Amino acid sequence: MPGLGYDEQGSLATYFVLTFLSLVLIPSTLWSFKASISKKSPRKTGNEVVISSTKRKEQRERIFGRPKRKSKGVSKKTLLLLIGWAAFAGLSYKVATSEAVQNVLYNPFELLGISEALTDKEIKRAYKRLSLKFHPDKYKLVGNETREDADAKFVEITKAYKALTDDITRENWLTHGNPDGPQQREEVVAIPKWVIEGKNSGWILGVYGLVFGGLMPWLVGKWWFGTRQYTKDGALNASAALFFHRLEETSSVPEIITLLASSSELGQADKVVEGKALKSKKEVKAEAGGIEGLVKAKAAELGVEGVMSGRFESVQSRRSAAIIWSHLLRVEFEDVALKEERATLLLSLPPLLTSILNISLAHNWLSTSLTIMKLHALLIQATLPSLPKLLQLPHFTFTEAKAAEEKLKSLKGLGGVEAWSRISEKRRNEVLKAAGGVWGEDKEEVKETVQVAKSWPKLEILSARFKVVGEKTVSPSSIVQCVFKLRLTTTDAPPTSNGTISPSTDFDEDSDDDDVDDDDNGVKEAAKKVKENLRKLTPPVVAYSPYWPEDRALRYWATIGDIKSDRIIVQPLIVPNLVPGKIERFTMQFQAPQGPGLYTFQAVFVGNAVADAEVWKGMQLTVVEPAPSAAAQSEDEISDPDEDTIEGQLAQLKGGNVKSKRKGGDDDDEDESSEEESSSDEDGPKGKKGEESSDSDSD
Questions:
Q1: Which of 208, 436, 502, 694 is most buried, most CB within 10 Å of its CB?
Q2: From the CB of residue 203, how many other CB atoms can be counted at a distance below 10 Å?
């Protein structure tokens, strides 16, 4: 049986440790370099070119304070990587300088120092010469050689000679690779021998107990209980339960903000910012009252209603709500710590909003879900639905934006960013004059505002239609695909469509493209997959958002709902990255209604980083019963039984359809009677009767 041994020299254990370190260090180092050096920046749009990164940084520092500089020195992660690479280098040097263990095949010719072409006599002569030289009685030790080394050398020479001359020994060598025959194989475990020595058993058992009995259960428990307290949306279970019980179908923006502030996460925001002991309840209450006073004064000035309304769970939640409202109303703080806390609090809101949105979607509430989606963009742009849309542009104040928007509506019939980008320079000067303020006198600021407005992202729905794969009509309960053609452009681009496209025009448009898409072709499917992968790698568009602590990628939710019933028909999907100026196809799938008829739906696309950017599309879906085929009709006719059969009688009792045989039966009777009459003229008693009648006539 093979034996089991341990690594005497420690070389195998060194190789094992080197392999383990390489598997850990290489991915960790590459990930660190990717995060710190080769981090990809999102796609830059027009507004990114107009507002330089330096200017955006200055704006954010004014609103949220200067971010704390990282302390000089090496981070813990970098230190661990350096220690790991140092250990790797040391072990590599040890392996490089240590004697390699070589598994050399037994070769008696090399041991005797002769060629394989020699004859037996020449082999014997070489052996005698070496045996006389290395005989234990005649060999003189040299240097550090011992008598055991000399004896081993003589035995090695003798064994090599026998392997070439003795038949049994030669067969063992040729068969098993050793003149002594089959050898016992020893399996070596890559564990140094000192690990299993008795004098170190106490230390080894202690380390095993500490690692497997203490450290690993602690890590697993920490991971398990840490993940169990969060939902799949990243919100705490306590917060999700609060959202579920308090969210209603009629919830408005102020009520949703109250829900956000009452979550468990926002009660811990000050811990993150201050990094020290929590303030007392009295201090928190006093500070919350001060912030709330500023917020309510600003709201009264702007005419915003519903601020700080609702029921709050604690003083801290009321304070968090005041901070959120201060952001939406653009209240500036002098306290640097408060600015930093606001930035930290805002960055924790998107996961909470996603959790609230999923609860609303579980109820299929259309208007409430759209309100939550829009709140994402309102937080990014620091504005409210009742405030002027021009506040999203740089340099506008509340008063100036309100006056400018009123003037725009009187001139263009509509306000907002798109109207500002399309207005002529002469009309723009009139608007600036009506808006007042000193910033309009600065030509550079006006130019910057116009350029940002012209580069403002705008989503267009070029076409939208329903289809069923492989069918020309939509039948009840069939799987329907709603195919959209979208284009992400800017506000100054000419519109490609005006209003809602008629459903019939949408449905018949680009029928050839659909035939191509439905074609089961391997090459086209592969090309489609490549296109999707390239789209995933495309960096997203970055929205202009100076009032958000960091750059925000522009995304769109897409959903289909019914306004009449205020219900969502198709759950929202995230539209893949859209390349500006390029037409993209987007498909949503759902099950058609169970009954035939004409159904009216509304497709809605809502942006997550630009306020007032939702796009609506009215659509009509006609569901018809599938027409029966000719084969099915013929089968139905054949399957109807005759009325004079047992099957027909049973079918009549059940109210089924049968074939009428009355007319056909009369004809058959007439045919039978005529046949009988013709046959009676020829034979039988009736023939005699005919003769008698003829005689009587003659008489």
A1: 436
A2: 10
Q: For residues 332 and 63, is the Cβ–Cβ distance under 8 A?
A: yes
**pLDDT surpasses 70 at 676:** no
| DSSP notation for 528-539 | HHHHHHHHHHSP
CB–CB of 568/559 below 8 Å? yes
Which is nearest to 357 in space by CA: 338, 339, 376?
A: 376
Supply the pLDDT for residue 478.
93
Q: Are the C-beta atoms of 565 and 600 separated by less than 8 Å?
A: no
Give pLDDT, residue 173.
Answer: 80
* Terminal-to-terminal C-alpha distance of the chain: 135
188: tokens are 């070596």
Name the token pair of 248. Answer: 């209603």
Contacts of 634-638 with CB under 8 Å at 24 or more apart are none
> How many Å apart are CA 135 and CA 137, to the nearest integer?
5
Residue 270 in tokens: 């000050």
Q: Which residue has the tokens 């007439």?
A: 670
3-state secondary structure 299-351: HHHHCCCCCCCCCCCCHHHHHHHHHHHHHHCCCCCCCHHHHHHHHHHHHCHHH
Question: Which backbone phi and psi does 298 adopt, to 5 degrees?
Answer: -65, -40
**3-class secondary-structure state, position 654:** coil
What pTM was estimated for this model as a whole? 0.68
Q: What angle do CA 463, 466, 467 make, to 5 degrees?
A: 120
The pair of structure tokens assigned to 156 is: 């090695």
The residue among 418, 425, 422 whose CA lies nearest residue 440 is 425
Rg (CA), the chain: 45
